[in-house]
Backbone:
């Protein structure tokens, strides 16, 4: 296929919903001179609609074993820095600055207790593991030591943060996020989402600062550059890169290059294509019969999240449209071909699927619809347009319930079996008395009534409310018999 060439006006209209960002303001904790102030940032995208389902799960056994073997090598961070200096990969001045940052972090850690010790300790241990595995390369030093320095600053002077809380440091535009047990981490999707908001509002100074900072913290990867993450997350061991944040970064850099008249930013966007051209886990590409799927987490090939894949295509489209680069076009077309195959597989007929099996949270359902609408505006491809419309209609469609149980026994629990069309909260009533309630996914389920001694008919009712607030109710007479 070929790109639908939009005019500048049409592209700007399509971009109004081109990322996870919304027009509403989001709270961010800003650290200034040892004090934290929560401010409302009108340009910052909202956080994840829900906690990732595997966030609390331990790292895969293979990763834990690899980490243990790496630690056994006892390659310290200081030794890794010294080796880089001796090999000429970094200057003596750079070595001294990094070694000082590291020494200060370890010194501060010894003085901390409780949650602060846990968070900074996690950063210290992950950096040590990276050094022991040979992953502390010269190209990663800027971002790794930014993570070390910022976590030391926050956990020695800042406030405690809940999961998902966004943070920022005075003088910097990079967005950070709290991942309890993993400290503060750069939130690249939030960072580039804010860049897109600056682009829409033509805030040139803020956009320039943010993009320059982001490029300076990119790491060499897959023959180009990438915005890497150095902690285990959602079943993905470190070091991973996301097609979702990488595609949004490419999009923001491309737009910024036009608004700021900065060809170097378009060059950075081109360098960031490398992970899309490279197979996982080094890149995000998974070759398919139709083309390629781009992973939301490069080190978890089994997790195929539709919203992340679709937004990466929006980013690749915009880069190709702005740059005219045939390499970007080929990457978009490979993903587009696969997305046309995949999108129908994520539609149950009543709701969207998050990663191919579980139904989406309401926020993710709306997010994937938004990304489909963006692709529809860019390409006019029917599967994107029709599915976006269908997902919107599903937000107003009530769930469908069918009670299958018709009889039960006296003096015994009575399982009430029923089918449910979409994820909902279902409540069971017997003769208008509330019995049980649970949030359930589509399929066949059972809620159990304790029963009674007397034979005869009872009125069984199920009420259901889906994630969008649509309600449904169904009732049936169930006959209790002594035998």
Residues:
């Amino acid at each position: 296929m070929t790109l639908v060439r939009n005019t500048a006006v049409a592209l700007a209209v399509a971009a109004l919903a081109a990322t996870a960002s919304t027009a509403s303001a989001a709270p961010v904790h800003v650290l200034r001179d040892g004090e934290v102030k929560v401010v409302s940032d009108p340009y910052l995208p909202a956080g994840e609609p829900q906690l990732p389902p595997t966030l609390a799960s331990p790292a895969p056994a293979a990763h834990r074993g690899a980490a243990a073997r790496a630690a056994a090598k006892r390659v310290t961070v200081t030794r890794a820095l010294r080796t880089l200096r001796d090999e000429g990969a970094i200057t003596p001045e750079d070595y001294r600055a990094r070694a000082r940052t590291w020494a200060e972090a370890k010194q501060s850690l010894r003085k901390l207790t409780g949650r602060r010790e846990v968070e900074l300790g996690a950063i210290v241990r992950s950096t040590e593991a990276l050094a022991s595995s040979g992953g502390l390369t010269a190209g990663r030093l800027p971002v790794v030591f930014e993570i070390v320095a910022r976590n030391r600053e926050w956990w020695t002077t800042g406030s405690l943060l809940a999961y998902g809380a966004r943070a920022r440091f005075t003088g910097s535009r990079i967005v950070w996020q709290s991942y309890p047990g993993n400290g503060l981490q750069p939130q690249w999707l939030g960072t580039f989402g804010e860049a897109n908001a600056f682009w829409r509002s033509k805030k040139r100074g803020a956009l320039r600062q943010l993009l320059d900072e982001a490029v300076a913290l990119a790491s060499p990867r897959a023959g180009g550059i990438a915005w890497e993450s150095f902690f285990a997350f959602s079943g993905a061991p470190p070091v991973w890169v996301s097609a979702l944040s990488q595609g949004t970064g490419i999009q923001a850099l491309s737009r910024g290059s036009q608004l700021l008249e900065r060809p170097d930013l378009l060059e950075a966007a081109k360098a960031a294509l490398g992970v899309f051209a490279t197979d996982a886990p080094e890149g995000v590409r998974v070759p398919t019969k139709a083309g390629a799927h781009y992973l939301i987490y490069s080190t978890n090939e089994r997790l195929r999240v539709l919203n992340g894949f679709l937004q990466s295509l929006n980013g690749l489209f915009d880069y190709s449209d702005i740059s005219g680069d045939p390499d970007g076009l080929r990457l978009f077309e490979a993903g587009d071909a696969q997305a046309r195959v995949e999108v129908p597989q994520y539609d149950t007929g009543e709701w969207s699927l998050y990663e191919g099996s579980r139904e989406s949270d309401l926020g993710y359902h709306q997010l994937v619809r938004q990304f489909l609408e963006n692709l529809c505006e860019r390409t006019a491809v029917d599967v994107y347009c029709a599915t976006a419309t269908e997902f919107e209609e599903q937000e107003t469609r009530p769930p469908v319930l069918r009670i299958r149980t018709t009889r039960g026994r006296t003096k015994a629990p009575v399982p009430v079996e029923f089918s449910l069309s979409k994820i909902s909260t279902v409540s069971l009533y017997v003769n208008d008395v509330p019995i049980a309630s649970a949030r359930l996914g589509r399929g066949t389920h059972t809620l159990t009534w304790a029963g009674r001694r007397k034979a005869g008919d009872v009125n069984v009712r199920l009420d259901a409310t889906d994630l969008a607030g649509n309600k449904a109710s169904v009732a049936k007479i169930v006959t209790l018999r002594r035998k």
